């Protein structure tokens, strides 16, 4: 099963999603900032990163990851995106879901 890393300076924002993915059989890991997240990427298959963080923004984190790893990155935000995507992530933003059951599809 895939190992998913969540990088967010507010653990409470992603804690429920991480727990739900764990129940669904995924391994999850957490880093409170991009610098810490960068240090645990060796065994990661997918990254969700908050776009707005202190120390290293999600955009800066994504640029650094893309230089050294071939890992898909999805930008997360609890606010509606102003541009509609995360240019550094090469993927759309995902707003953190209110209903976790919509995040994992069975079948």
Would you kindly provide a written description of the structure presented here, covering whatever features stand out?
The strands form two sheets. A five-stranded parallel β-sheet has the order 2-1-3-4-7, sandwiched between helices. It has a two-stranded antiparallel sheet with strand order 5-6. Helix 1 (11-23) links the parallel strand 1 and strand 2. Residues 98-107 have low confidence and may be disordered. It has one domain: Response regulator (Rossmann fold, 3-Layer(aba) Sandwich), CATH 3.40.50. By secondary structure, the protein is of the alpha/beta class. The longest helix is centred in the N-terminal third of the chain and has 13 residues, at 11-23. Helix content is 27%, strand content 24%. The chain is globular and about 30 Å long.
Secondary structure: helix percent: 25-40%
Low-confidence stretches: 98-107
The CATH homologous superfamily is termed: Response regulator
Count of discrete structural domains = 1
How many strands?
7
Q: What's the tally of helices? A: 3
Strand order of the largest sheet: 2-1-3-4-7
CATH topology: Rossmann fold
Overall geometric form? globular
**Could you describe the largest sheet, including whether it forms a barrel?**
5 strands, parallel
The overall average pLDDT, rounded, is 79
What is the gyration radius calculated from CA atoms?
13 Å
* Strand proportion: 15-25%
SSE order, one letter for each helix or strand: EHEHEHEEEE
Outline the secondary-structure elements.
Elements: E1 3-7, H1 11-23, E2 27-31, H2 34-38, E3 46-50, H3 58-68, E4 73-77, E5 85-86, E6 91-92, E7 94-95
Parallel strand pairs: 1-2, 1-3, 3-4, 4-7
Antiparallel strand pairs: 5-6
């Amino acid at each position: 099963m895939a190992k998913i890393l969540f990088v967010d300076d507010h653990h409470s924002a992603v804690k429920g999603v991480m727990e739900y993915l764990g129940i669904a059989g995924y391994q999850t890991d957490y880093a409170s900032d991009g610098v810490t997240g960068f240090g645990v990427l060796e065994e990661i298959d997918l990254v969700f990163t908050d776009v707005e963080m202190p120390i290293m923004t999600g955009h800066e984190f994504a640029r650094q990851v893309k230089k050294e790893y071939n890992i898909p990155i999805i930008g997360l935000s609890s606010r509606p995106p102003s541009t509609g995507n995360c240019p550094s992530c090469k993927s759309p933003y995902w707003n953190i879901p209110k209903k976790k059951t919509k995040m994992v599809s069975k079948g």
